[in-house]
Amino acid sequence: MNDKQLLSAKTLGELKKAGYRSRPIKDELRENLIVRLRKKQPVFGGIFGYEDTVIPDLQRAILSRHNILLLGLRGQAKTRLARLMVDLLDEYVPIVDGSELNDDPFRPISRYARDLLAQRGDETPITWLHRSERYVEKLATPDVTVADLIGDVDPIRAATLKLPYSDERVLHFGLVPRSNRCIFVLNELPDLQARIQVALFNILEEGDVQIRGFKIRLPLDIQFVFTANPEDYTNRGSIVTPLKDRIESQILTHYPRSLEIARKITRQEARPAGEQRNRVKVPALAEDLIEQIAFEARRSEYVDPRSGVSARLSIAAYENLLSAAERRILLNGEKETTVRVADFWGVVPAITGKIELVYEGEQEGALRVAHFLIGKAIRSLFPEWFPNPETFRREPQRSPYAQIIAWFAQGNVLDLLNDIPNSEFSRQIGQVPGLREVVQQYHGDRPVWERLFLMEFLLHGLAEFSVLGKHLVENGATFSDLLSSMLSVENSGEEDEEEQPPFP
């Protein structure tokens, strides 16, 4: 019998005739996963970087029918993994019509369903529950109570039905019992008060609940998935040991380990406007720079490693980068443009709002740390695109940058303002002799619009390697000879702190 015929069953008797086989949710997940693995079908699609680490662990936990704890820093796709488990559920399952606990008609657990089945037998009406309705998610906060999760006595129901408080029907079930036959996800588990965590012991161990001393047994059928951040263990709370002991599989998540994986995640998650995609060209190097900023932040001495640096930093930074370029063409009345290194000043708000600074970082200030991270990203990627300037320290005459350095040494200065039109930007950056030739030599196969970005990147990279001087102002950057730049800073006395080059 096909699914369409099966779904036409409206009573328990019709369900029996259809040959429907009921199974616990963990068996359901396990058997459906086995089918997918045998058919080489994708499992947990859209998750990048976990193919050889987290996803195999998660699959093993499902095959073992375990409750799961996903442990990792913020922005590591823990909740997304849990939500994707829904795809391993049957598309529809039957429940007793009117049941608030999603009662299986073959294994009812609530008083309502048992009474209805005893009264009507095979004529008991059933309805079908779609798998999208079998996912329940709760954020653990300190104000969550036992009544919220497990349940409590409902005095209004008792008064309305004229029932004594000893009657099971006066109970109001909480979120966990109502998640029977569902995937129940509890995010940020350490934020849950210890006494509330204790209330989950019996559910995990025996599958039943205890509400205010009522002698009831509800053998709940739930797949539990918990998420936690290791930072929470010290800052706000912890997972009590007996509860952690009852969660069979603890799976460690991690951040992307390569720029390629990080780029895939950002491209998938970023939501730029359609006009931005059509009007703003983004060189491959610009995408790498966005990801490298996050990599630099995760290992920076100014950023708290326990807090982590979420993938949301790269996503928000990418969106801001496109918006900075779009704003520029709107101001200049242009139709399209290419992202510039100067547009990375627009990603600073995405950085400062998503990093937690240690004491040294607080002393420097979030703005200076953000510019420092951008500079570090440029320095890290520069040797992948151009020869490392440090290899020519002893033989400067052999350096491919000799003509560029000589031009600035003659006292020439280049001012690149953030919002100048495309034509003016091309004219100004093209006046530096040797700059275009170096880019042509190493990346001559790339289109003109990308080579302009590489010319600007080359200047910033030489400044990061202390070959040129760079002075940041509020609306752009000034490039000059390194020695004259240092002397001008020394002779200028006390300057406005915001105009000082970050971490010179």
Outline of the structure:
The protein has 504 residues and is α/β, with parallel strands linked by helices.
What does this structure look like?
The chain is α/β, with parallel strands linked by helices. The chain has 2 domains: 3-142 and 178-188 and 216-252, 3-Layer(aba) Sandwich (Rossmann fold), CATH 3.40.50; 259-499, no CATH class. Helices cover 44% and strands 12% of the residues. It contains 24 helices and 14 strands. It has helices at residues 3-7, 12-17, 25-38, 54-63, 78-84, 111-120, 146-149, 155-161, 194-198, 201-206, 232-235, 241-246, 259-269, 274-279, 284-298, 311-332, 348-352, 359-364, 366-385, 402-409, 422-430, 435-443, 448-464, 482-491; strands at 68-71, 92-96, 126-130, 135-139, 151-153, 171-173, 183-187, 223-228, 249-252, 280-281, 337-338, 414-417, 468-473, 476-481. A 5-stranded parallel β-sheet has the order 4-7-8-1-9, covered by helices on one side. Strands 12-14-13 form a 3-stranded antiparallel β-sheet. A hairpin with a 2-residue loop joins strand 13 (468-473) and strand 14. Helix 22 crosses helix 23 (448-464).
